[in-house]
UniProtKB/TrEMBL annotation:
Belongs to the class I-like SAM-binding methyltransferase superfamily. C5-methyltransferase family. The lineage of its organism: Bacteria, Pseudomonadati, Bacteroidota, Bacteroidia, Bacteroidales. Keywords: Methyltransferase, Restriction system, S-adenosyl-L-methionine, Transferase. It comes from Falsiporphyromonas endometrii. This is Cytosine-specific methyltransferase. GO terms for biological process: methylation. The active site is at C167. It catalyses: a 2'-deoxycytidine in DNA + S-adenosyl-L-methionine = a 5-methyl-2'-deoxycytidine in DNA + S-adenosyl-L-homocysteine + H(+).
Length: 421
């Protein structure tokens, strides 16, 4: 857990209270309780978790006359000023509430909080992503949302469901093509939560290819489920490009928005128009010389060149790409190709001595990968966002994330329609 700056002589306050990915949900319930102190189910789970940890580390038991006092003191200690050392605290006077499913590292959360939203539940199974989320928001997301035990912690009466749900394959077998046919997919869990909790609105994000998956039958199932089975008003999905909203990255994603017609009157909702703000790579480029570890070796560069030439001879456009300072980046995605399609030229390197094991020498053409911080900026994450994991995990996390500015502008239209602004 993040280090609490205040000090205490009692060793109870120096204990590591969790490990990411806890299967008993205690750590997630505990950090959620820090932000949602009126949730009694969280309080019970949080206190049980803290008690278990303290008993294990300090060997205290109920026979100790100070047992209950020390546990209560520990609970109150961490409740105090929980937002003091995180870069993205929740708003002091929230305008609305939301939940953050398939939360990743919190792209949705940054956008929604910036508009006055309070997150009352988050879920993300990846342990490294949980670590990053905790460092920035002071909260560990619950794990696997497909588990009923996790769903039980979702509160009632939140306003908006947010989910960048994975594009897990759909099996289209029957004729109804609705709620029942989504079973076995992660979308089913989103639909099930919508059915149980009936939030005023939802905001879903997915890859552009969702619209054409299985010749269009997948999106048909999704829309039939949301509209016909669940009764939400759902405007036609729209492909939104991050480059239209202030970041220099060509990243198209499909957004799906819906409203409960029994709670709202928002038939005039419109997706946001492009901001027409011209940006390019130099706007987010590192200001100072970066480590030699980001520069390609001569052997690796030659391998990329040969690979591209071989595909070009076959009429294919595969291979690496170099983004000039005045260009916009290709979509940042997971895997090596995501980095190789976004190489840049940076001639500021002064020390060519490798700091990692490479074959060959560091290239003298100034060709390097973008840094994780540059990827963060391509996705619209503020520089205050903490990167607390190794580079490989950071690239994966930002590649999987949503583009924050595009989410924010669309969310702004949602909350305007809901009369929260």
């Amino acid at each position: 857990m993040r280090n609490i700056k205040r000090q205490s002589n009692d060793p109870i306050f120096k204990i590591q209270l969790h490990n990411y990915g806890e299967e008993d949900f205690g750590a997630a319930a505990y950090t959620h309780y820090l932000h949602n102190k009126t949730n009694l189910s969280l309080e019970q789970e949080a206190k049980s978790y803290v008690t278990k940890i303290l008993e294990a580390h300090l060997s205290i038991n109920k026979a100790d006359s100070t047992y209950y006092k020390r546990i209560d003191d520990a609970m109150q200690y961490y409740l105090f000023d929980i937002n003091a050392d995180i870069p993205f605290p929740e708003p002091k006077k929230p305008k609305f509430t939301f939940i953050d499913l398939f939360a990743g590292i919190g792209g949705f959360r940054i956008a929604m909080q910036s508009l006055g939203g309070k997150c009352v539940f988050s879920s993300e199974w990846d342990k490294k992503a949980q670590e990053t989320y905790d460092a920035n928001f002071g909260e560990i997301p619950f794990g696997d949302i497909t588990k009923e035990r996790v769903k039980e912690f979702i509160p009632d009466n939140f306003d908006i469901l947010c989910a960048g749900f994975p594009c897990q394959a759909f099996s289209i077998a029957g004729k109804r093509r609705g709620f029942e046919e989504t079973r076995g997919t992660l979308f089913f869990d989103v639909a099930e939560i919508l059915k149980r909790k009936r939030p005023k609105a939802f905001f879903l994000e997915n890859v552009k290819g969702l619209l054409n998956h299985d010749k269009g039958r997948t999106i048909e199932v999704i829309l039939n489920t949301l509209r016909d089975d669940l009764g939400y008003y759902v405007p036609n999905p729209k492909i939104i490009n991050a480059k239209d909203f202030g970041v220099p990255q060509h990243r198209e994603r499909v957004f799906i928005v819906g409203f409960d017609p029994e709670q709202t009157d928002v038939s005039d909702f419109e997706y946001p128009e492009p901001l027409n703000k011209k940006v390019c790579f130099k706007d987010i480029k590192e200001e100072k010389e970066v480590s030699v570890k980001y520069y390609l070796s001569t052997q690796y560069l030659n391998t990329l060149i040969t690979h591209k030439e071989r595909h070009a001879a076959k009429g294919n456009g595969f291979g690496y790409a170099i983004i000039s300072d005045d260009d916009i980046a290709n979509a940042v995605v997971c895997g090596g190709m995501g980095r190789e399609r976004n190489l840049v030229i940076d001639n500021r390197l002064t020390n060519f001595t490798p700091v990692t094991n490479i074959k060959g020498e560091v290239n003298r053409n100034g060709i390097r990968r973008m840094t994780p911080r540059e990827w963060a900026r391509l996705q619209g994450f503020p520089d205050e966002f903490k990167i607390v994991v190794a580079d490989a995990s950071a690239y994966k996390q930002f590649g999987n994330s949503v583009a924050v500015p595009a989410i924010r502008e669309t969310a702004k239209q949602i909350i305007k329609a809901l009369k929260f602004m």
